[in-house]
Amino acid sequence: MNKRTVEQLDAGVDGKRALVRVDFNVPIKDGAVGDDTRIRAALPTIRRLKSLGCRIVLLSHLGRPKGGGFEEKYSLRPVARALEGLLGSPVVFIQDPSKHEAVEATRQLPRGGVALVENTRFYPGEEKNDLATAQMFAALGDFYVNDAFGSAHRAHASTEAVARLLKPAVAGLLMQKELDYLGAALASPKRPFVAVLGGAKISGKIDVIENLLPRVDHILIGGAMACTFFRAKGAGTGTSLVEEDRLPMAKDLLARAGAKLVLPDGGVIASSRLRARRAKWRGTRSPTAGRCTTSTPSRAAVSPRSSPAPGPWCGTGPWACSRRSRSTRGRWRSRRRWRPRPPRAPPRSWAAATRPRRSRRPGSRAR
Fold first, then answer.
1. Among 230, 263, 223, which Cα is nearest to 244's?
2. Single pTM value for the model
3. Average of pLDDT values for 207-227?
4. Are 168 and 194 contained in the same domain?
5. CATH of the domain at 80
6. Residues 45 and 152 grouped into a single domain
7. Which domain holds residue 125?
8. 133 contact partners, CB below 8 Å, separation of at least 6
9. What DSSP designation does 5 have?
10. pLDDT per residue over 284-325, tens digit each?
11. What is the mean pLDDT of residues 225-251?
């Protein structure tokens, strides 16, 4: 890789502030980090800068906030606590980088100290690659390190504009590792060479697809971005996520790629995401999942008082096996455990048939 990395930094950066763009977009549940894999991946770069005596200021995004200000569920404060546990040292959390106190906090960090800035996407100028937003971030550091390989393809203020304001701008160890592996794979790949792409939008991956087309044998498209290609082919997508403004681009890619571009040949269709999740859960829980060769019967056709047509039983769908089971007499039992009422015995005489029935109370004798 012909890019300067943190390994090439010398003692001249001792005491300087390193503004490091990392990818801490991790799942958070109940105020705790659910998977710290991405945090651990950034530790070698952080420890390398600590060994050089740098004051480390970390930038990252989390989720997809609206960009109108602070949102509690997208805060990076739980990530700061998780990073403290992995480093074994305190991490200063900077709530608002736009204030002068934030700049002073980065300058007062000890050598080897670490600070984490709040979610960069809380600021509307981040995703617009706004110069003023980039200058706000640049005031927190003296040189720039990009170690966010998963976000490097986006021209945002914390990834592209800041790199033009701070010098030197170098790559982190994780970035170096990924680029070295990708460069070797593209230079002399083993055949067949297949690329797998996913995500929500094709707009952020159009350059990647166009660069991979002449190099790979096949490109497998998955995730929500496949819906845009389905719509471009004329298929119905319902209320699924589709980039309407990218349909001409998707049609052009399909025409140029031909058989190289492979789309999913199946999917789950439901009236809502909640029902889709329920159908998926029942399919995995049911012991007969995957055996269905016919369509799922409707609710009216599978009422408790009627038996469905014989055939293989379906383990998925809104009326899966987890809701009903077959009894020994061949009837279908619902969750309410419906039972057919037994026929009443015929009366022995006309007087007995017309006599009013008396309730049998416990302990009473029949007359």
1. 230
2. 0.61
3. 87
4. no
5. 3.40.50.1260
6. yes
7. 6-177
8. 123, 124, 125, 126, 157, 161
9. B
10. 544 433 333 333 333 333 334 444 444 343 444 444 444 444
11. 86
Q: Could you tell me if 81 and 198 lie in one domain?
A: no
Residue 121 located in a structural domain: yes
106 occurs within a structural domain: yes
Closest C-alpha to 206, from 252, 260, 264, 241: 252
Q: What is the pLDDT of residues 53-109, one digit of tens each?
A: 999 999 999 998 886 788 999 999 999 999 999 999 999 999 999 999 999 999 999
- For β-strands 17-21 and 143-146, DSSP reports them as parallel
Residue 320 lies in a domain: yes
Claim to verify: residue 159 and residue 70 sit in the same structural domain = yes
- CA dist 156 and 30 (Å) reads 29
> In 3D, which of 172, 27, 166 has the Cα closest to residue 106?
166
Q: What is the C-alpha separation between 247 and 230, in angstroms, rounded?
A: 10
Q: Are 207 and 252 found together in one domain? A: yes
Q: What DSSP string runs through 234-282? A: T---TTS---GGGHHHHHHHHHHHGGGEE--S-----SSHHHHHHHHHH
pLDDT digits (tens, 9 = 90+) for 193-212: 999 988 877 777 877 888 88
